[in-house]
Amino acid sequence: MRDDTAFVIVDVQTDFCPGGALAVADGDAVVPVINRLAPLFRTVILTQDWHPAGHASFATSHAGAAPFSTIAMPYGPQVLWPDHCVQGTPGAGFHPGLETDRARFVVRKGTDPAIDSYSAFFENDHTTPTGLAGALSDLGIRHVVMAGLATDFCVRWSAVDGRRVGLAVTLVEDACRAIDLDGSLDAALREMHAAGVTLTDSTALAASGAA
């Protein structure tokens, strides 16, 4: 194991898994893969969507708006989601099968009622930091391996922003699942490739010793 590598587990929460308020198809399938990988790393970090009730990204906060429609917000286009991961609700909790004891800390995002936060590093204005980059720097982390939900939103933005702050980023594809909204998965894969994100799978990662 390399001391300068961290495993970042993105938003593996009940609301993003089958039966949840914003379920990603087959989302719970990432849990056993992530649980197998986590012991390879000395530093494990969890991210958690943690919205106040009435968050601006919820369709119910905009009269007449349909879930999955898009509106203009001061920080750019915003998909309007079903209410999900509301602070303190069961849906905001981590999937019950996810082993969380190894986590060094949890990054909660989307806590500002006026702005969404897909990325583990920045809110959706691409400027306001979550604090993760500074924490990783303090720990001497130069490489992050990412897994979680959903490939084309929170994982995508986290991976691209990881590169933006100067980290090497590896994405474990079989430890992620996508929403794939209007071709968003293909767009995400193209963007991550262009940003220099390395794509791999759990078997190759374990065999390579990249952790």
Automatic annotation (TrEMBL):
One Gene Ontology term of the molecular function aspect: nicotinamidase activity
Spans traversing the lipid bilayer: none
Domain of life: Bacteria
Biological processes annotated in GO: pyridine nucleotide biosynthetic process
Pathway(s): Cofactor biosynthesis; nicotinate biosynthesis; nicotinate from nicotinamide: step 1/1
Enzyme Commission number, as recorded: 3.5.1.19
SUPFAM superfamilies: Isochorismatase-like hydrolases
Keyword Ribonucleoprotein: no
UniProt protein name: Nicotinamidase
Gene this protein is translated from: pncA
